[in-house]
Amino acid sequence: MNGTDPPKLTPLLLTGNVVNRPTQVDFTACRIRPTTQNAGGLWAPTIRYHERTFYVTTTLVFSEKEYGDLSRWQNMLFTTSDPSSNDWSDPVLFDYPGYDTSLFWDDDGQVYVQGSFYWRIREEISQYQIDVRTGRSLSGAPQKIWAGMGGKAPEAPHMYKKNGWYYLLIAEGGTELGHCSTIARSRSVWGPFLPCPHNPLLHARSPTALFQTIGHADIFTDDRDPERIRYRMVFLATRVIKDAFPMGRETCLAEVDWSEEWPVITTAALENGKVGGMMDVAKLSAPPQNLQALDILASPHHHLLYLRNTNLDACNFPYDASNSAQPSTLILHSQQITLTDPAKSPTFIGYRQQHLYFESYVHLDITGLADGSEVGLAIYLDHEHHFAACVEKRGGSCRAHVKRVHPDLKSMPDDQDVVNSTPLPIAENATVIRLRVLGEPEKYTFEIDLNPGRTAPGIHPLGFGMAKDVSGGFTGTVVAIYSSHEGSNGSIISVQEWKYRRM
């Protein structure tokens, strides 16, 4: 384990996806707000369990709309009895003039929804009583219950009840370096809420710590040992190294001591020295460990990521994924949609970057690459921020190079921040090639192997891109394979192998 990875944390296993079919949510109008990295789409889901049913609330955000336009926020509720089955309901819509909605069941069975009014309009946490079957309010308009400790953008509310007290946990300070979690309590679900005397409960330990933007927390009980009920907290944090944080906001886990009146958070795993912007990255370098690569195509398909309202026929598996005896192959059908399209869904299938040091490589049969087409391996943040090691065919000739997409590309100087990629000619009779990306805290390095699996060396460097240029927003980078074409003739590309390995 490299020194930049949190020590002694157990990886969380993905068991399924709430949104797993195109009919549940329409992402067509979800864009990135111009001149910002303020992305639309689904924000801040919260999961709750009550009487053998799981509930997930989330907000579909249309970020291009005006801040005061209440149609900017579409809140929705999904349910299932088995979260690992992918058998989640279609959404129940409910009105709330903001985001970060969360459900709370009181002892009498009444259900309340808390949420965050948009801070640019009004800084407050409010709630109303809700019918979870219909989404209808049972108490009229949302009522303000707290506004936090004075930090910017009070948000991410969660309500708990313990020993007759209603506890309200929120985030405030904005989602950047001032982010933190604070808590208050009241004898009534409607308040008034009195703040904890040792707020904030959770925040970055110093401006130079590796983990920054710490907040947006939730507390849950761990009752696996019935004789000792434990409390734990999940929260978001960003690993920042010299202005680079390509993985965005990551989910972390901490222990909670709630033996007294107020919870106390144990964050020893985050306090591994001053290794933020002041660190010497060279000291973090370590020789690759002998860790087994993950076969992405043979893994459960709920790990795979798509863009927006994807066309699943453009990325299909011509075999039964449950039959491990069959080869792990994927067929890409190119579309006239590129990675730079802000609204449509290209032929794209991704796997989330999970480590600061990693490699990913893909074997592609390019015999079906049509003229005017390209196929590649990308590090993708959004349509305006990504790198792609691609093979393209123009005028009957193939070449490989690295594409770099960034809003400031034209104005950036010719220095190490710019990809150094000279197109590499590829022979007309080439069949299977391998594209590889090596990820490090500050940069991504791309290469191509024209003779994968053969004795004759065929490895050529293609170029690199800086991690800070794919840092920003919330969601983090995705390692993706894609294909697109111009004109009327598309390509059919066979993906014969795709692996990801932590270094």
Features:
503 residues; Tachylectin-2, Chain A; Jelly Rolls; 0% helix; disordered N terminus; Beta-xylosidase C-terminal Concanavalin A-like domain-containing protein; glycosidase; hydrolase; hydrolase activity, hydrolyzing O-glycosyl compounds; GH43_C2
Please explain how this structure is put together.
The chain has 503 residues and is mainly β. The chain has 2 domains: 41-284, Tachylectin-2, Chain A (5 Propeller); 294-502, Sandwich (Jelly Rolls). It is built from no helices and 31 strands. It has strands at 41-50, 53-61, 73-80, 92-94, 98-105, 111-117, 125-129, 143-146, 155-162, 165-172, 180-186, 194-195, 202-203, 211-222, 230-239, 250-257, 264-266, 294-295, 315-316, 330-333, 347-352, 358-365, 373-382, 385-394, 397-405, 424-426, 432-439, 443-449, 459-466, 478-485, 492-502. Strands 18, 19, 20, 22, 27, 28, 29 and 31 form an 8-stranded antiparallel sheet that branches. The chain has a 6-stranded antiparallel sheet with strand order 21-30-23-24-25-26, with no helix packed on it. Strands 9, 10, 11, 12 and 13 form a 5-stranded antiparallel sheet that branches. β5 and β6 (111-117) form a beta hairpin. The chain is elongated.
Q: How would a crystallographer describe the biggest sheet?
A: 8 strands, antiparallel
Structural Rg? 24 Å
| Overall pLDDT metric | 85
Q: What is the C-level CATH assignment of the largest domain?
A: Mainly Beta
- The fraction of residues in strands falls at 35-45%
CATH superfamily of the largest domain: Glycosyl hydrolase domain, family 43
Instruction: State the share of residues found in helices, binned by percent.
Output: under 10%
